[in-house]
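Step 1: inspect the first sequence and its tokens.
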Amino acid sequence: MFFERPKTGEVTILVQLSIESDKEREDPIEFEELALSAGALPVEFISGARKQPSPNYFVGSGKLEEIASAVRAHKAQVVLFNHALTPSQERNLEKELQCRVLDRTGLILDIFAQRARSHEGKLQVELAQLQHLSTRLKRGWTHLDRQKGGIGLRGAGETQLELDQRMIGQRIKSIRKSLAKVRSQREQGRRSRSRAEIPTVSLVGYTNAGKSTLFNALTNAEAYAADQLFATLDSTLRRVELPNFGGAIVADTVGFISHLPHQLVEAFRATLEETASADLLLHIIDCAHESHIDYIDEVNNVLKEIGAESVPQLQILNKIDLLERTKPEIEYDENQIPKRVWISAQKGIGIDLLQQAVSEILAGSLVSETIRIAPEQTRLRSKLYEKGFIEDERIDESGFYHLEIRLPKQELERLMQQGAVLEQIPELIESSDPVWVAKEQARTA
């Protein structure tokens, strides 16, 4: 029911008013991109201004007649409003315009319905749609206000509207139960990664900022990426090996947008929890977009809403190939911690710098040491090579490995527990290699 969409676009009239009482104005360019992403064919953009929305139609009588004339002239099938309409306003507008009317929330829900691919994604979208639909049932059932009485015509004592509300309520309850299982499975996966001490890096950002393109560049994956709003709905996780650090999990997530409908935040909470529980957020920013400063604030607002505002964040200024005289680089704060990286995910520019910055943040602080391990600890040595920790090595006359390494402090502590010995502390070295001890004592004298 919710996922059948016409293959061709629909002739559409776009409407946006400037309301004096609104502190934040909607972006008309973004509104048109949303309409195109939904498969609409915009033929006219009607704008205007009002002090307050009309309680009956949102727009005034003159603007309503202008919209009706445009609908008749273009034989439009849909009128999209870049505002949140009440159920009564939608019903009144549809009655006057004699075509479908959708507000901003309904438009975003429709895009999500088209993009959903996984079973979980479809459940989340359906939950959000049912919650939105439950307040708008009256429009379709005015002809069935009461069931008929009389012999053979008496029903269950409920109106059609009540029956629909009850069925929707039951379906919402069933979906919530299924999503609770998904949440439990995700939590189990997070606990497993925590036990294995594998950190999670979550990609967040405004929709169409380039998150999936960067995800593919980092992980060599083939996640769907396109120049359209909400190309990604299903969270994807991949393991990557970071230089001088080791393994980490990278998670690609759904993009954010200004005034993201509350129903979507609630429905996608299982997916968004992946963001709230991450060790590091990579905030992807389309630095070539004129409104990218405003988009940063919008993303931070959503992060606050899902409880992820305290997670460490690294800003990724993407699409530098669209700017003049901009080079890839890492910017550091006053504590010499990376705070911003300039890259182009599509062109593969600066990806190595991004990996370096992520490694530095996850590691806390990297240390350079020389360690000594026994000849029988070849498995430990191979793991160090696998993680890219070893910068140089030599083997002494007794077969002991002397490794120059650069790695996180916690990894060094773990190595010490596994039998590795720091060469800087001669008294900890086993006396089985007196030649080496004598050399070390001479070096440190």
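Step 2: inspect the second sequence and its tokens, then contrast the two.
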Amino acid sequence: MFGFLKPGKEAPASSDDPSKDGGKAAADAADAAPVRPGWAERLKASLRATREQLNRSVGGTLGAPIGEVGGQIAGLFGLGRKIDEALFEELETALLAADVGVGATQVLIDNLRQRARREALTDASQLQTALADALAGLLAPLAKPLDVGTHKPFVIMLAGVNGAGKTTTIGKLAARFRAEGRSVLLAAGDTFRAAAREQLEAWGERNGVTVISQQSGDPAAVIFDAIRAAQARGIDVVLADTAGRLTTQMHLMDEIRKVKRVIGKALDGAPHEVLLVLDGNTGQNALAQVKAFDAALGVTGLVVTKLDGSAKGGVLAAIAREHPVPIRFIGIGEAIDDLQPFEPREFVSALFD
């Protein structure tokens, strides 16, 4: 039996006069509440572990405040240090330790060598901007915003390994699309884990959107029915959850291929987006996941979660070099607005400033 969760209702507006004592107390409390930092500041704080990993690699001072003499790479680009082979070797070590990957590291180092020669750079501090420019250039092709306005309903299928954050990502995306004025329907395609269904239903209540689920059974059937319901109701976006699976579990990889085929039978041309959710803490393993899921499903976009506290943020550069797939969003926390579109220059600025 499929369950349908009705959209939540807004709380009735208060009739209290703000000029009365109760209104004044509420206003005073709001004034006293701490102001939450903006996205750029939160992103910078979240990438601190990656900065410290770079610092650790070159024997820098972990206790140095972020932003001093180039922040995390002060030991490399300290004022007065000469550009020489030892510097490039230390920089290579630092990038590899941050999971930038061998291929991307080589590209970046070659870029810096060429720029140093071309511009006759002599001081190591001059290379900091050069490295930021090179990294931003490497990541730039991955910045392709997701456009859900090309089809109705626009069907997004989410996949990933266990614990990557798929269900939470769906909840945050639902909130984003709702804020844009779009109608959303959630399909609880993870029929193996009861907690996943319950978690998705909680997100549905929170966002005021319908969730179609089933106690157990075929995940493809759940998503099929969800798409048909979305067509009947004129829904703008369908977000289809799937169970987490390891890429080495071949029977489960076959199953998710079936899910995609069934989606195509429910609606010609769907899914319109296949999002792979990656845990930013997995480093180079994330690159292996991209390759495996892309081979199985034809991944069209990535969501990189849990970058807050990760010392492996450099894996985005590895993906750009080894298997470029657009990064639609990055996540740095549990709050709804901690998932934002990927902006390379913003990311690089947070990593180096």
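Step 3: confirm your contrast with the notes below.
Strands lie at 3-4, 154-159, 184-187, 210-213, 237-240, 273-279, 301-305, 327-331, 339-341. Residues 40-142 form a domain with the Four Helix Bundle (Hemerythrin (Met), subunit A) fold (CATH 1.20.120.140).
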